[in-house]
Design a protein that fits this description.
15% strand, Spore Coat Polysaccharide Biosynthesis Protein SpsA, Chain A, 10 helices, 323 residues, 48% helix, alpha/beta, eight-stranded mixed sheet
């Protein structure tokens, strides 16, 4: 990961009174078509705010287009680029940005312009008058995206609902504001981590506000179904050991059935009613073999994430600053 600062800068205020600093952490992956419009809107929003200092971090998650060049040419804002060594996914990009962000509060939002900036204004009002660590935006209903993605999202929330105690925390994304104390707690956890679920879990005081995502006007979403599936699996395996316990329960139930079936087989043997049954033997073998395979796969998922965490934590990052 390396840092690249824009040569342009803007002075927001010359007041001597120390202001609260707000950091924007914005993951970006192949957003050449839309990043200019987004930054222009962000620039207009920032110039309208007189009570804060701002820090804008664009996390380039291994873009293969001209997203960085388009960002540099579109605004005079002082930008900090955090460049990932390769495309690692939105959650890891946000995690990297949180480590770099130095603001008293940190706002995370997408670079595609679907997160409305008037909701950011609501964020600032809430944290100004209420001592909360987290203000999380959520969508009461999902109107964006394909039917397949929406169906997958509903299934995912049903699957992990027991870990999410409040209905309003469903359909949360990466649109939020966090206090410095919460960011520090998140940074203390090893990568990879799913920030969208870790933040509410670690927060001691939270507010949830509804919002409607804007339609994407340019470009295509980079959250393909496969990426959403990987995010769902990461969320489940990083947040809960329930899959292991479900498999353990199923294995215990299978053992009970096997014991009962063994009693039945012994009784038939004693009564001399046994008939060689290839079908029952194959079905039983396949069933037990499938349970063993499922258990091994689940263990492998957890072991894989331990390996990834070790690899990512030990990986050196190169830092380059251009003023």
């Amino acid at each position: 990961m390396k840092y690249l600062r824009n040569q342009y800068s803007c002075t927001l205020s010359n007041m001597k009174v120390e202001k609260v600093t707000i950091s924007f952490v914005i993951p970006m992956f192949n957003e050449e078509e839309v990043i200019a419009k987004f930054l222009q809107e962000l620039e207009t929003f920032i110039y309208a705010q007189k009570d804060y200092n701002f820090e804008i971090l664009l996390v380039d998650d291994g873009s293969t287009d001209n997203s960085v060049e388009a960002a540099l040419e579109s605004t005079k804002l002082k930008l900090i680029f955090v460049e990932m060594d390769k495309n690692r996914g939105g959650q890891f990009a946000i995690s990297a940005g949180l480590k770099v962000a130095a603001g008293d509060y940190v706002i995370t939002l997408d670079a595609d312009g679907q997160h409305p900036l008037d909701v950011v204004q609501d964020f600032l009002k809430i944290v100004k008058y209420a001592p909360v660590e987290l203000v999380q935006a959520f969508q009461p209903s999902r109107s964006q995206g394909s039917k397949l993605k929406n169906l997958f999202a509903k299934f995912f929330w049903i699957l992990i609902y027991s870990k999410v105690r409040e209905t309003r925390t469903r359909n949360i994304g990466d649109f939020r504001i966090m206090s410095r104390s919460l960011v520090n707690k998140i940074n203390s956890h090893a990568d990879p981590k799913v920030v969208r679920f870790l933040a509410p879990q670690l927060s001691t005081s939270s507010r949830f506000i509804p919002f409607a995502a804007r339609a994407r006007t340019l470009g295509k979403t980079k959250y393909t179904f496969s990426k959403l599936l990987n995010l769902g699996l990461d969320s489940i395996f990083q947040l809960s050991v329930r899959p292991l316990r479900v498999v353990a329960t199923a294995a215990g139930f299978c053992m009970i059935l096997t014991f009962m079936y063994s009693i039945y087989v012994m009784r038939q043997y004693i009564l001399q009613n046994t008939v060689p049954g290839w079908t029952s033997l194959v079905l039983l073998t396949c069933f037990m073999g499938s349970m063993n395979l499922l258990a091994v796969c689940l263990l492998g998922e957890y072991i894989l994430r331990i390996y990834q965490r070790t690899e990512l934590v030990s990986k050196p990052y190169s830092i380059r600053r251009v003023e």
